[in-house]
Amino acid sequence: MSKPLVTFHRLEKVFRARSEWRWPLRWPRKQSRHPKVYALNGIDLSIHRGETLCVVGETGCGKSTLARLLVGLERPDEGAVYFDDQRIDQLSDSQRMPFRKKIQMVFQNPYASLNPRMTVYQILREAIRLHHAGWSRTQVDQFIEELLQSVGLTKDAEDRYPHEFSGGQRQRISLARALSVEPKLIIADEPLAALDVSVQAQVLNLMMDKQKELGLTYLFITHDLAVVEHFATRVAVMYLGRVCEVADRATLFDAPKHPYTQALLSSIPRLDNLDLEPIHLTGEVPTPLEKPMGCSFCNRCPLANQRCYEQIPMLVTQSDGSQVACHAVEEGRTWK
Ligand SMILES: Nc1ncnc2c1ncn2[C@@H]1O[C@H](COP(=O)(O)OP(=O)(O)OP(=O)(O)O)[C@@H](O)[C@H]1O
Fold this sequence. Notes:
The protein is an alpha/beta fold. It has helices at 63-71, 93-102, 110-113, 120-131, 137-150, 167-179, 197-214, 225-231, 249-254, 259-266, 306-310, 327-331; strands at residues 6-16, 36-47, 52-56, 78-83, 86-87, 103-106, 185-189, 217-221, 234-239, 242-248, 316-317, 323-324. The chain folds into two domains: 1-90 and 233-289, Rossmann fold (3-Layer(aba) Sandwich); 95-220, Rossmann fold (3-Layer(aba) Sandwich). Strand 11 (316-317) and strand 12 form a beta hairpin. Helix 4 runs parallel beside helix 6 and helix 6 packs parallel to helix 7. The protein is globular and about 70 Å long. The structure holds adenosine-5'-triphosphate. Adenosine-5'-triphosphate is lined by residues 15, 17-18, 37, 39, 57, 59-65, 288.
């Protein structure tokens, strides 16, 4: 197999808590006014060329932080990020310029991420000018027309402003802007969350078509497991700043191994097994204000034993190629 396009190596990110975290009820007053938030606690993960890696996990588990580190909006406290074999997490803004073109991001809210004062033409021209500085006006105009056509929009979209479009059309414009610099990787952070279900399918199909046509790689962050099942090549399941399972799509949905993945997937009704009962997790959801000593999932895991509370489980490759970070899986402990 060729080398991965992206590698996250033992990535850690700690934030100082935002003001709303300052005095939560569970936080003793004697503690710092700005306690630490352990957003990523040692992420080891790769993205292969041409694949769609979907990252799933409940809110606050660190999915967006991972994306922001890759795109250079945040720097890690520990560990490294490699793109095309080059370490990119320590680069200055100017050293990062060549990678800006190769790594593009599509956000959840296309309205907030498109400048409302610029027409679609101006938005696209700005991106193109930055990366194809030598192009003539005619070349730029022709490229914009073709670009809009390729995402299902017509030339008359050029003179309109973002607010004149529907949510789905705005997401097409965001995709056009990302594609305008001919990237290798597109990071899509919940790109469908603000769209109607019928429009979600159109945007998803467009993204899949573009991937086939241009050989793109996607890092796709979502809460929606139906989207993951339709769209992913591989899936990384995150829990509280750690990756607990990575597997190709079929393996993950057919044979999830980590107890958290099993609970997560049991919430989707399956036509092939209507008798399957959803697994209800008990126990308090841990806070990222405390660095977990052992497995981050142990206080909600019905399979946990003393070892799980004391020792951090590492990702271990299984016989079917998936990777699982779980002492219970390693020891063969199963649900009763
Ligand atoms: N700039 C920041 N300052 C302080 N804390 C932050 C900052 N950014 C993220 N966090 C915290 O880091 C943790 C991980 O956040 P992140 O946004 O990566 O999670 P997420 O999995 O993407 O969540 P969601 O699915 O809700 O978007 C959260 O506890 C969040 O509150």
